[in-house]
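Standup notes
- DV: blocked on the single-chain target, sequence here:
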Amino acid sequence: MYYPDELVEEIRAANDIVDIVSGYVRLQKKGAGYFGLCPFHNEKSPSFSVSPTKQMFYCFGCGAGGNVYTFLMNYENYSFQEAVKSLADKAGISLPEAEYSAEAKKEADRKSLLLAINKEAARYFYYQLRHPRGRTGLAYLQKRGLTDEIMHRFGLGYADKTGGDLTNYLKSKGYRDKEIIDAGLASADEKHGIHNKFWNRVMFPISDVNHRVIGFGGRVMGEGNPKYLNSPETSVFDKSRNLYGLNFARTARKNHLILCEGYMDVIALHQAGFPQAVASLGTAFTSGQAGLVRRYASQVLLAYDSDDAGVNAALRALDILRQTDLTGKVIDLHPFKDPDELIRQEGAEEFQRRIDGAENGFLFEIRMLERQFSLEDPEERTRFHREIAARMCRFEEAAQRENYIQTIAHKYAIGFENLRSLVNGHAMKTGLTQPLQPVTRTGMNRGGRQKAEDAGRKAQRLMLTYLAEEPGLYEKLRPWLSPEDFTEEFCRKVADQLFRDLSRGKMSPADIISLFREEEEQRAAAELFNTKLAEAETKQEREKAVHDVLVTVKQNSLAYYTARLGSETSALNQVISGKKALEELKKTHISLW
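- DV (later): unblocked, structure below
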């Protein structure tokens, strides 16, 4: 839901950032600010600062920064709207109700009802596991090495052997037969009437990222099929768009998630100190789940079973991860079947060693491909090399493709140019009219225009930092500088608000950060207000530094609008005023301090 800027700012102002951050990070006051260990990267000495005057946080180690919204979005992995709601609740500020159509309201009420039924069922299963009737399920979980603490954390339960105890309990709470069936907890037929969906099973409540129970998985005790039974899909439970354990893993403070196949693998890993573990829900990994993962991590480590079925599942998952721009790696579990068995046999330290040595996903794929060919046979080896080349064509980025060509050519003794030739040949055959061009490795030969554009972007950000550090500069530079001179969209947006604030004699960095909804832009804005400028020895040197940055900004502005003459009506005025300003700046000394 969209919230007005005025309301967003009211909520931010009502939540002091020091109070909010102190609930997550131990802070110590030093001078005008507070410092602590950064929660976003591992460090031994505090580089994480919180400024009560700027109402901002910034880490001088990893560069994370922003206002109170950014902090919650980073730490809790909230969306911007979720962060607004959380802080509004803390401040006691009412948010506007979303306007629903009659049909939409009916659907929202239906989902709320199903969530309430699932929550009540989870409580019932939890109680049953700890009742004498649940001793079979409890003994099974204890035999698997689970502690009371981890069973409580995941809300594990037990479904009794009787066919109607849960439905009778839920009906005693006021829920009707159809509602219980719609929640996926019961079935009905003419012979037996309404009866439990789950019975004689250890129960695993499945929660969404906000810890709301949306479904269940059940593991049968003793003989019976299926071994694992999941809730059917409902309006609150979509297997393809949820992951088991993600409600905990999303706040694990890791740069990756570990993707497993089963509930027990996830729980065992969490118990062993790997809270970043998740699992798909009885189905193959899907693109919807990959999209969910992207909200919380950029890399996925696959800890699938080490048998052939697990290998095939890993290959399918790697393909989906690649299509979603996620990096995939594979954890080697041999000689053990799954992560649970490895940890029980070898312990957490060994599993960490396997994480550290996880294999690059594409190299794993090629290694599995190698099994299909007899490399002692020249024809088979040639076919293998051609298949490698075909898969190389997936990489559109030249640098990435060339790096893989180099690595694989060396590993399989193909020869760099030989493999590149095969890649180009395949590209031509499959419809790419031009060969895949090699990357230019010099890096510095980008041309004068590109260098000028880079210098212009850097100067714009540096000028904003000067103004943030020395607000008094605004009056001195105002005759020469306007928000229109900031041609980078991000800098223009900051300059618009900053110039308005400075003209009124006030400046609120936290307010400016609130202009942005994307985390990266909030981080970039925070950096503008926390970059330490180089100390100049004399007043003249400081003035020259600012003057040089001002000239670069104006030159970049002039080039930008000159290129748009004839396509933008305002460009001509900007070019005329820009030329005049540059001419005057070359012969004018601006006394800044």
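- Follow-up: The first strand starts at residue 28 and ends at 30.
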